[in-house]
Amino acid sequence: MRVGVHINRFDHPGGGPALAAELAAAGDAAEAAGLSWLSVMDHYFQMEFNDGAEDPMLEAYTTLGYLAARTSTVQLGALVTGVTYRHPGLLAKIATTLDVLSGGRATLGIGAAWYDREHAGLGVPFPPLAERFERLEETLRICLQMWDPEANGPFEGKHYRLSETLCVPAPVSSPRPEIMIGGGGEKKTLRLVARHGDACNLFTTTPEEVAHKLEVLRGHCEAEGRDYDTIRKTVAYSGEPLATGDLDAFTRDITGYTKLGIETVILSPRTGEPAAFIERFAAPAVQRLAGLD
I need a labelling partner for 102 at 20 to 30 A (CA). Which of 10, 74, 109, 212 fits? Predict the structure, then answer.
């Protein structure tokens, strides 16, 4: 099992002027630790349950571009982009640019969006949930068409219409950037993973619950004619050991997931100083998890 880190706080004690140096240090620490993944949130406002909307929040893809310039091996992505945040053609172009400039290290993390306050706050339309899922599927199809060099042409959907799906330069990743669909919704989200995704991201609720979600995904894969084993399984972990630094408790927490085929556990610390967290906790966690079977 590999280890990733999800940067979800930007409340550095030094304020905005300190963030660039902190992110650069986090990138250095991630690669020194042997992390396989480094992600940031994609939100306009900080989440209300993560101390408040008024707390600092950076734009995700600008931040990922900065991290791309400061790293050379770690996979980069947003965990996850809300489908409502950017027009799908523009989103595909942004993710392609990140992939090209990072040397093929971009993942397109995407979901149906949920944070209504930030949409209302910045005047971004927030359609009902059923429509957001319709838009999510169309967005996935648009990205796949834009990343197919033989498929340039119109796209006609219920919500999006493109006269061209030109995307030059093409992604560096082969055959294209990875698509990670976030969420554990059994009827819609996991079906979209089976149909269009390369990776899924689930929460570490309990090993039994995650095992159930994976069985649901397996069923959707059978219905779609998809090989279940080709989908990368990841989980997000934000347990108390991340705050206390208790590696033994963390190891106990995560052991139950090791036999489920989880490829990566993504640590979500609530700290505005991720570099120190990576050095103090994530680096030894890499060694701990490498020894689990």
Answer: 10
